[in-house]
Amino acid sequence: MTGRILIDLFMTLDGVAQGPGGTDEDPSGGFEFSGWQAGYPSSGMGETVSQGMQRLDALLLGRRTYDIFASYWPHHTEGPSGEIGRLFDRVPKYVASRNPDVALSWQNSHHVGDDLAAEIAELRAQHDEVHVIGSIDFVHSLLADGLFDELNLWVYPILLGRGKKVFDDGAMPSVLRLLESSVVDDSGVMLLRYGRTDRVPEVGTFED
C-alpha cells in the first residue's frame, strides 16, 4: 500500500498561515501578527489535532519549521501532555532544504530537496502517513507540483490581510474532494479535510 503525504496547516479566514504559534516564529517581511493562533485559544481543536496524528510515522518539514520544532518538542515529552512530543521525537524527520550540508541536530533527521518528486515517492514507499506541518514556503512547492494526498486546514475566524497565504499564484489548478463534514468548535475554529484528485477545473457558460 502506498503511503500518503498529508499537509496540516493553521490558517486565518483570509488564508494567512504565517507564524501562527509564537511572536518570534515568523515575522519575516514585516509581518506584525506572528503568534496569532496562540492569541486566539481554540476550545476543542487540541483533541482533533491529536487524533489526526495517530497514524503519523514521519514528518516532512521546511527548514524554519524544523528548527522551531527541534528547539521545542524534544523538551516536551514527559507525562500525558507529552504524547505529541514523544511521537515527534521518535519518528523520522525529513527536512527540505536547498543546502545539502544543512546541520540537523535532532535525532533521526534527514535532508531532502535534491529531487523532491523522487524523494517523496521514496517516502510514500517507506511510510504510511507523512505529515507536513506548517512550513508554508515548502507547502507552496508541494501545491505547485501536486505532491500531496490530503490537505487539512484548521481555519480561524480571523482576518489579517497581510502575510504568507496558503494558496499563492503558483498552486497547481486542481479540484479537491471534501473528505468529511467540517468540524467546528464553539470558538468558531473549523477543520476542513480535502483529498487531492486528478481532476482539473473545467470552464463553461451559464445559459438562460
TrEMBL record:
Q: Name one Pfam family in it.
A: RibD_C
Database matches in InterPro entries: DHFR-like_dom_sf, RibDG_C, Riboflavin_Biosynth_HTPR
Q: Which organism is it from?
A: Microbacterium foliorum
Protein name per the record: Dihydrofolate reductase
Instruction: Please give the SUPFAM superfamilies that the UniProt record associates with this protein.
Output: Dihydrofolate reductase-like (SSF53597)
Q: What is the lineage of its organism?
A: Bacteria, Bacillati, Actinomycetota, Actinomycetes, Micrococcales
Query: Which residue numbers delimit the Bacterial bifunctional deaminase-reductase C-terminal domain?
Result: 5-184
Instruction: Look up the domain of life of the source.
Output: Bacteria
